[in-house]
Amino acid sequence: MTQEAPERWEGLSIQIHERDTNDAGSRGSRSSQFWANPDVDGSYTVRNSSEIRVHGRHLAFPIDHVQSLATALSALITPSIPNHRVAQYSPRYRLSFTLLNEDASAGNAFHDWDIATAISQHIKPVLTRLKALHNFTIESQVQLHAPLAFTPRPIDNIFGVAAEDLTVFVNSAEWTLCQCIFLLYQLVLTKASASSASNDPVLHFVIFVPSADRRPLHILDQTGAISPSTSFLLPQWGGIVILNPDESSPETRLALPALDTVFSAFSEHLLSLLGVPNLPPNVAQASSSLTDWQIDALLRYRTLSNSKGSQDTLRSIVSLVDQIENMPVGQDVRGDVQGALNALEEMFASSKASLVDTFHQSTRAFTLSSRAFFNPGMLALLYFPAEHKYAVYTPMFASAVIPLVVAALKELASWRRQRRTNTLKKNIPEGTVAVVQTT
After folding, report:
1. How confident is the model at residue 17 (pLDDT cuts 50, 70, 90)?
2. Is-contact 340 296, C-beta < 8 A?
3. Portion of the chain with pLDDT greater than 90, in percent
4. Which of 34, 41, 63, 80 shows its CA 20 to 30 Å from the CA of 95?
5. Rounded to 5, what percent of the chain is helix, strand, coil?
6. How many Cβ atoms are within 10 Å of 251's Cβ, its own excluded?
7. CB 101 within 8 A of CB 213
8. Residue of 84, 75, 32 lying closest to 55 (CA atoms)
9. Which residues have a Cβ under 8 Å from the Cβ of 177 and sit 6 or more positions away?
């Protein structure tokens, strides 16, 4: 008799089965069911196997290697994620894809591209797997003039971009990257107003086509040699791919075969920016899509960061109210703070039941605490405290106050002289002639 799974599971549940999925007895219905139903009970399952691969929340691994198994499980459940690359969490992101021609007037430039198909093949599957964490809006544009802010180094018959030039590769002064004109695809899980879309953080993905007189353009490594990579990632900003077109081709439309390599790099950049961890190097996956191990690890990472962020923000609010006198704390701020506290309590209460619910509560706590901290009523006094007001208004009133103070001092001196004269007159006996000298 099979024991029914409990409605609530305590923490992390990992089931280990010693039966080998590769032996003759397991190649039938049991092995097929193991890989065809990866999420039967929502827990993690480890099955003995000579090959190492994952599918859903299942892991095939030789369980007789206990230490290697423990290392693999640790890397799958709590992988290392480089925080400096990952963009700050937001429920919604705008993905901006831009085709930049450095100088289309020099010839051999691209005026159009098959971006809809490239996004459908390379980007949309990733966004669909991440729909539990974010909503996405995708935009694109083509620019015909996008000069660099520096001059690439001529080396023999090529031009090179040094490693130190990569940090200033984006010419923000002349590249209008946020003014996208064509909405391609929108994955909406909750209703969002058009005004909020402009406030959503933007992740940029840029194809840079160098001018005809600066081709081919390559990235140089630290030693000055040509790097085999034509793309690079700017942490928390986006990714850039340098595309050197074929000089013999007169095409002005960037076709899908050329975009496949570019958007494969963009897909990897997107995963890095959103914090999706990589699988351990010795673990293969049964399908090309993101595994549930990766999604769950990302949910844990975002839940932890949202929880820490909301708690730090709430402490900052308390510290500001204590330090700044007359800090206005309206009813809306109090409601957001109380809502964030309630969300944190619900997050900890649901942490043993559902990872997705725990994540959603952490997101709610982070959103409410941030909204309370950046409330307009509090920001006004935060950026313009009482000391600032004194410094601004004192010079304005000084010209009017100084004459009043001088006149008051003169009147006080006159009153004191008059009072001293009257006192002396009272002290002189009647009938005596005296000369009273005043100064």
Report:
1. confident
2. no
3. 40
4. 80
5. 45, 20, 35
6. 13
7. no
8. 32
9. 96, 98, 170, 202, 204, 206
